[in-house]
Design a protein that fits this description.
Order of helices and strands: EEHHEEEEHEEHHEEEHEHEHEHEHEHH
Number of strands: 16
């Protein structure tokens, strides 16, 4: 870890779904992980990778051994380090420059053909400081196949099955390369069952915790995202107070988020450090709460007594903050409150609502693919 530089990603070498995987920022955190990891204690290998913070991109493709069809490219809202199953994914990748899209298509094609893939293949990338890196390649179907099939109109499972039975993409009427972009925006949202899983932390990270998915489709990113949040049960009631408790590393980026919440009419309740930081930058905070057990009202009280209706809590990295954060998040989910632990997710929610996402349309799914096409052709 010292040689490749922190932060690093550590994980047992034999697990699935990101189980027991953790992003480590300092040597003492790595020592704690190794001391408490059952995998390491039993003599099994532990893998240590350099963690690259950047935009995560996911591609599902279909390969017949000679050609590769890419129905679509999805961009994650949360930065790399959050398990892909727990991320909000956006189709099409609206913020990727065309040069990056071309590179992703080329990388996906070269990898699938080099592996001799037959059928579905899923590849996850990260864009870090302008360079595209391959995170992982899965020569199988992924959880995004149903989502991408619905929004692109490509029957991915049927096409892949026919390939396994001996028919090529050309035989089925498909050409290699990126499928034409559809005249819609779709957002895949994770759905969690944290209230039913006692003692589980809702904090997002490399370990997958979601138990399902929902989808929002519309003609704009803001409207599709607003639908996805609504479907996933993460909408904070209009005008309701919101609790902010941000880690030191997130306070600067949280100022814009807080201003957006105020603009939407949400009174802010914040812990001492967060409140002081926001007020010093001109953001109004209605109520300052104490850390757990350090005064009245403390941060748990405002949740337990439902003085707030939504919680945005980004995890800190020292032991006391980690424990307090866990209690805050558990209290919120056990009372059915939306609880966001990723600043990226929270900012996307505010962006969607400020951008008019609440004024979404309601149409059958095929209409979003067809209506714009007809008007463009005419």
């Amino acid at each position: 870890a010292d040689r490749i530089g922190y932060p690093v990603l550590v994980r047992p070498s034999y697990v699935l779904g990101g189980r027991a995987m953790e992003v480590v920022y300092r040597r003492d955190q790595l020592e704690r992980y190794l001391e408490t990891s059952n995998a390491f204690a039993s003599g099994r290998p532990v893998l240590i990778d350099k963690y690259l913070e950047g935009v995560e991109v996911e591609v599902d493709a279909i390969c017949d051994g000679r050609a590769v069809l890419i129905p679509g490219i999805m961009q994650h809202i949360e930065r790399a380090g959050v398990h892909s199953g727990d991320s909000f994914a956006v189709y099409p990748a609206v913020e990727l420059p065309p040069a990056h899209v071309e590179t992703l298509v080329r990388f996906t094609t070269d990898i699938a053909l080099a592996l001799g893939a037959r059928g579905l293949i899923n590849i996850q990338f990260v864009v870090h400081e302008g360079t595209i890196y391959v995170l992982e390649v899965n020569p199988r179907a992924s959880r995004t196949v149903p989502f991408l099939s619905k929004v692109t109109g490509v029957p991915m499972v049927e096409v892949a099955t026919q390939i396994l039975l001996g028919r090529t993409l050309a035989d089925q009427g498909f050409r290699a390369g990126l499928w034409p972009r559809q005249p819609l925006v779709a957002v895949k949202a994770p759905v969690f069952s944290m209230a039913k899983l006692h003692g589980v932390d809702v904090q997002l990270g490399p370990e997958m915790k979601s138990t399902g998915e929902a989808m929002g489709v519309d003609r704009t990113f803001e409207a599709a995202l607003a639908k996805a949040f609504l479907a996933a049960g993460l909408v904070i009631p209009p005008g309701a107070p919101v609790l902010l408790s941000l880690a030191d590393a997130d306070k600067e980026a949280g100022v814009e988020l807080a201003r957006g919440l105020v603009a939407l009419g949400h009174p802010l309740v914040a812990t001492e450090g967060t409140a002081g930081y926001l007020r010093a930058r001109g953001v109004p905070v209605e109520l300052v709460v104490q850390h757990i057990g350090h005064g009245h009202p403390d941060v748990l009280e405002v949740i337990l007594e439902r003085m707030v209706r939504g919680v945005i809590n980004t995890p800190g990295r020292d032991e006391e903050t980690i424990q307090d954060g866990f209690l805050i998040r558990r209290a919120a989910v056990e009372r059915g409150m939306p609880c966001l632990t990723s600043l990226d997710t929270a900012r996307a929610m505010v962006r969607a609502l400020l951008g008019g996402g609440a004024s979404y349309s309601v149409e059958p799914l095929p209409v979003y693919r067809l209506r714009e096409q007809v008007s463009v052709e005419s």
